Amino acid sequence: MPFSYILRVPFTVWAMTARVLYLIAIISGVILLLGTWQYNPILSTIKVILALGLIAFIEIAFARKQENNFHAGLIWWALCFCIVVGIVGLILSQGRPFLH
Fold it and tell me: Phi and psi for 39 in degrees, rounded to 5?
């Protein structure tokens, strides 16, 4: 599937998909927070702030897309931000899942 096809997908499809994924991320984040708060409350708080910041950043990117003020750098920043949040989550969970 060429990259140009991905860019032609309607904006509302991307926005609604992202919002469904936010719900999944928030639920898994709460589960992670409940499991890690006892031994690392500071890093847990930082993870929550980073995750909420990522959601806000993606919503800002969607708003800029609607205003036709969007540039490709926003995609790369969002991807980097997502990787940082994921790394902090892996550090908190010590690389293993909580659900057995």
Answer: -105, -10
Tens-place pLDDT, residues 41-50: 999 999 999 9
Q: pLDDT digits over 23-77, tens only?
A: 988 888 888 888 888 988 999 999 999 999 999 988 888 888 888 887 778 888 8
Cβ partners under 8 Å of residue 46, min gap 6: 88
Give residue for tokens 């992202």. 18
| Cβ 26 vs Cβ 93: under 8 Å | no
b/e 61-80 (16+ beta carbons within 10 angstroms → b)? bbeeeeeeeeeeebeeeeee
